[in-house]
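Readers of this paper often ask what the protein records in our data store actually look like. The remainder of this section carries one protein's record, kept here as part of the documentation.

:::
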Amino acid sequence: MSSAIISAVESIFPDVKNFICHLHFLRDIGKDLFNTEYGCILRCLKTFRTRTTLRKLAREFKKYIEQDIELKDCLQNCMKKNFFKNNHAPLMPPVAFYVLVTWG
């Protein structure tokens, strides 16, 4: 945390312990250590239109899944975290692909 934020927090909450969020701390360290590599990866992803391609695939797979009642049910159960309800294991590859493509 910056010294300004630390001072502000201490003045507003004088008797409260102040801790650093591990997520934000590690994210900031990662930026310091891997900023060059991260920038390179972003440029490559933009150059090869990776996000656009994945979104197109996601739309196509969603149509494919919605046309099959079992796949649609499997996807809905996955979203509810009931992954293998009603013995959906054989249906998982297309559903898992769709979930991974749309994740993030």
Remarks:
- The chain has five helices and no strands.
- Helices lie at 3-12, 22-47, 50-66, 69-79, 92-102.
- The chain has a mean pLDDT of 83.
- Residues 46 and 61 are 22 Å apart (CA to CA).
